[in-house]
Amino acid sequence: MTPGTELAMESQSDVTTTASLGTILIVEDDPRMQRTLERTFAQEHYTTVVAGDGQTGLDLFRNERPIAVVLDLILPNISGRELCKIFKQLSAETPIIVLSAISEVADKVLLLEIGADDYVTKPFSPRELTARVQAAIRRQRKPPVQTVYRFGDCEVDFKKMTVRRAGKPVVLTAHEFKLLKFFTDNAERVLTRDVLLNEVWGYNFYPTTRTVDNQILKLRQKLEPDPTNPKHLLTIYGAGYKFVP
């Protein structure tokens, strides 16, 4: 056996022994694009199955149970839009990333409304596409978020946007819920006023730091047993605020 043959066999062995991260279904009718997508995901250690039309894509989706789908919109037999709806009816948790030359905002909004998890417009960067697919897969694998949060004598249901303190209902505004959610997501962390302004109010809104102080004062009045001596929404002098469950 020649050294070159040995090297080729070793290289092939390395490829075959690399564990697949899962199967990605590619539904795309352009053979050149199919090959590009196959190479792109193979480099990231994914197995791929490819369909050149909508009906084949549907059959492979049912048989292969992919961890994600990369879907073109213009397809023979079944359109990409219709296929997206069918995929979500069969498996709502499977991420679908649309790959299309369509770039109008209205079409992007429509894609998200029919169930697509993300979209990438052609021409695309392979690095961006794989990053978006991987991000969609990670989001799907996250454990379900606990919507009911309890601290002190308070019980907050962020999904239903309801609060009870000592068994009695408390009314919060939508923005107070948003601020409280950010605090509970960052419990025990000291948050500066600038962080709160950027993360809760947003970069496109320009309140003063006094706005933060007033909002926290209102939360204390509604949620603390003794607002003048808070146990949960604490002021860290010279730094900001900290939430302690």
UniProtKB/TrEMBL annotation:
Molecular functions (GO terms): phosphorelay response regulator activity; transcription cis-regulatory region binding
Start and end residues of each Response regulatory domain: 23-137
Cross-referenced Pfam families: Response_reg, Trans_reg_C
InterPro entries assigned: CheY-like_superfamily, OmpR/PhoB-type_DNA-bd, Sig_transdc_resp-reg_receiver, WalR-like, WH-like_DNA-bd_sf
DNA bind region: 146-245
One GO term describing the cellular component: cytosol
GO biological process, alphabetically ordered: regulation of DNA-templated transcription
PANTHER family membership: PHOSPHATE REGULON TRANSCRIPTIONAL REGULATORY PROTEIN PHOB, REGULATOR OF RPOS
Protein name (Swiss-Prot/TrEMBL): DNA-binding response regulator MtrA
High-level lineage: Bacteria, Pseudomonadati, Acidobacteriota, Terriglobia, Terriglobales
Gene name in the database record: mtrA
